[in-house]
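Researcher: Structure for this, please.
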Amino acid sequence: MSPRLFFTTLFSALGAAGIVIFGSDAIEANVEPTISTEAKPMPVTVEQFELETTYSASTRFLGIVEAASDSNIGFEVAGVLSALDAKEGDFVTTGQLLGRLDIRQQSAALALAKAQEKEVAAQLELAKLNLQRVDSLLAQSLISQREADDARLTVEATQARLETTQASVRNAEIVIEKSELRAPFDGVVSKRITEPGSIVGPNVPIVRLVSVGEREAHVGISPKFANMAVIGESYALFVEGKALSARLRSVGADVDPQTLTVLAVLTLPKDQSVRVGQTVALEFEERVNETGGWLPITALLEGDKGLWTVLVTKENAAGEVITARESVEIVYSEGERVFVRGTVADETNVVASGMQRLSPGSPVDIVPSIRVVN
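Model: Predicted structure, token format:
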């Protein structure tokens, strides 16, 4: 080997060795500061898990507020609607006139019936006078029995005709009476359905009348709770978030084929201002036999196979408080908390929130929870 080649090779080898040594020192210097020799405990708040054998589950069913009486009312006879005094929003009392039909034809029919009544009444009076004369002649044997019978039957026939005309008069009077629409109960006119000038038939709706005072909640509930409900008992009813105590008046005997629910009717307190058509929620409380406990939903992280993960705190051999993983299953949820069952022991402290920052075995420092008061 030539001296030049020898020195070239030697310097190359020394340079490569220097690069390796320098690179190793740099990596070691970069890693060394990131390795923590002593992890600081993470401050956490905890909830004590208390094992229970039952829990209370609430179930709500939606319904609607209705008036005790809510009717579309109309005439019982046909005619032309000549006037409708009731206006939407008007308060009316029982028997108050709301509207009327054109009764000119009915008035003419009544006048004709009364004239016929007078005519037949006069004919009856004449027939009775004739019968008196016939009876007198018969007593003197001046006429035959047949003539006397004819006179008597004439009186009876005329009497029947008079009763017929009297019935016609009464019928015409009833038609005129029924040509007036009157309020069947105290209430508020909710809607005018037909306007004056319209030709209406029997039972055609003219106005919608809603009673004042008592209100009812009509709620469809499941057959299960229909069997549990007790008529006369009070139940929690929520109207726009406000809780009311309503008395159960009735429970239907059949299941609605469309909604698969049973109709429950509850009477609302009279001192509560609720309006017809408002949505309500009926709440039932049920005790369920199940062993488990309540936890805040923030204490759970989704795990595998439908299970959830929680972190509990315990002391290690060195007396430090660290975390450990446990698995639970959600049985029932209620707002911001859940009832769970799983491997968490009774009276165990469970990390209430911030699990994403921790892992099993992490040292923690338990701090009191801070409750925000609005």
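Researcher: Any notable elements?
Model: The helical segments are 3-31, 104-139, 145-177, 223-228. DSSP finds four helices and 22 strands in the chain.
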